[in-house]
Design goal:
By secondary structure, the protein is mostly helical. The chain folds into 2 domains: about 210 residues, no CATH class; about 200 residues, no CATH class. The chain contains 15 helices and no strands. α6 runs parallel beside α8. The longest helix has about 40 residues. The mean pLDDT is about 90.
């Protein structure tokens, strides 16, 4: 096998980052369409969709290692010139996704009712959420297959096909959703059926891509266990983000309705920009993994420096843009005077964080591509529990409101920045080899 020469120039980075952004943006855009369709049914179905959707996303988002971990393992093999072995990683990730999806489906069906009633009370909103969730859970295995498909295709540096597949699935579902909800008359359950159809189409396209590679499709338990080991660290890392996010939203809600509304507006913009920056991180994963798989630690370190610079430039640019939009954009989300008065308390912190976020997310991608998941897990937990959570608690006790909450997020990001830069400078993450488990 001949190791590949990894192209890390700006054009190659953009060629991978732009389609990745399209994939990342497709799901939120579809959710907006789904919300608009269901919103015309009334407040209760909309609230049911919101609750059911949050529960489904909360669980499935913990399994994103099927994308990120698979990219790391696949990219190394691709960089070593072992494409068939790289795709074989995708096969095993797909089997793992199907198995975990089946488990998630069974557990979700058993717990959907009790959890919905716990969160919303025993009333019409919980009933609506359960009616949506029980159907939507049927798509869980397909969602995880799509995650695995994105992972192995990014690893072999094929960024365009995943975008086509995800767009095809979401466009089909966006057309089907209003038909089932209104024309057929299924109401809220019609939305869930459209979701499952979308997920089935996406999974089928990724499965077809695997078959086209002409690699063995049998499950290999040893490889699946190795993928689970890497996934364990990424799941713990995701949980740290979830805990801090839920705690911050809870404290904002306890502060005032206006603070909660302002927090939601700025948080959604933060999440959107994180997605923009994360597209650069996805490019970093594939390129760093390929460089290490090709046996070039120097090239991997060069990619890290270059991607970090791109992240800083992009984050700074986004900060400038949203600083200029401070007096305009919030009014597109709300006309409530109280909420508009609270938004600046978080807005300027959000703006100032963008350059830091650009570097942090870029380095996340570098270390994910290197398979340095254990370090990322530990660094994230330290940043969350030493920086963010203490400030959230103090904000609740001392009534600091949004200033305290967003200062806590700033501390978390600064701690992550420092730890990531130290790790980058050390170079200990740049371990060469095609097999991540042995690196």
């Amino acid at each position: 096998m001949v190791a590949l020469e990894v192209d890390t120039g700006p054009r190659r980075v953009l060629a991978m980052a732009v389609p990745a952004l399209g994939v990342l943006a497709a799901e939120p855009l579809y959710v907006l369409v789904d919300t608009a369709v269901v919103g015309h049914l009334g407040a209760t179905p909309l609230a049911g969709l919101a609750l059911g959707g949050v529960l489904f996303t909360l669980v499935s988002s913990q399994l994103t290692f099927l994308s990120y971990g698979t990219t790391a393992r696949t990219a190394r093999l691709h960089g070593a010139g072992r494409r068939a072995d790289a795709v074989a990683e995708g096969v095993q990730a797909t089997w793992l996704g199907l198995a975990l999806g089946a488990v998630l489906l069974v557990i979700g069906e058993l717990l959907a009712g009790p959890v919905a009633r716990l969160l919303a009370g025993d009333g019409p909103i919980a009933a609506a959420a359960v009616s949506w969730l029980r159907i939507a859970l049927l798509g869980a295995p397909f969602v995880l297959v799509t995650m695995a498909g994105n992972g192995w295709m990014r690893g072999v540096q094929d960024a365009v096909k995943p975008l086509r597949y995800v767009l095809a699935a979401n466009v089909a579902s966006a057309i089907l959703c209003p038909v089932l909800v209104y024309v057929v008359g299924w109401g809220l359950p019609g939305s869930a059926v459209a979701n499952v159809a979308c997920q089935l189409v996406g999974a089928a396209l990724f499965l077809r891509a695997l078959r086209a590679e002409h690699v063995p499709l049998r499950p290999q338990p040893r490889t699946i266990l190795a993928q689970l080991k890497l996934g364990r660290d990424l799941v713990v890392r995701s949980l740290a983000f979830q805990v801090t996010g839920v705690a911050a939203t809870s404290v904002a809600a306890r502060t005032s309705a206006e603070a909660a509304g302002a927090h939601q507006v700025v948080l959604q913009l933060w999440s959107f920009l994180a997605m923009v920056l994360d597209s650069l991180a996805i490019a970093a994963q594939a390129l760093v993994g390929a460089a290490l798989g090709a046996g070039s630690a120097d090239q991997a370190r060069s990619v890290a420096r270059r991607i970090t610079g791109y992240g800083l430039v992009l984050g700074t640019g986004l900060g400038v843009v949203f600083a200029a939009l401070a007096g305009i954009l919030p009014r597109a989300f709300t006309a409530d005077p109280g909420v508009l008065a609270q938004i600046p308390l978080a807005w300027w912190i959000f703006v100032l964080l963008q350059p830091i976020a650009g570097v942090v997310f870029a380095l996340d991608g570098v270390f994910l591509g290197a398979g340095d998941a254990a370090f990322l897990r530990t660094a994230t937990i330290l940043a969350a529990f030493l920086g963010y959570l203490p400030m959230i608690v103090l904000s609740l006790i001392l009534r600091w409101g949004l200033v305290g909450i967003w200062t806590g997020l700033s501390l978390m990001m600064v701690i992550r920045l420092v730890t990531l830069l130290i790790r980058q400078r050390s170079g200990r993450w740049a371990v060469v080899g095609a097999d991540l488990a042995k690196s």
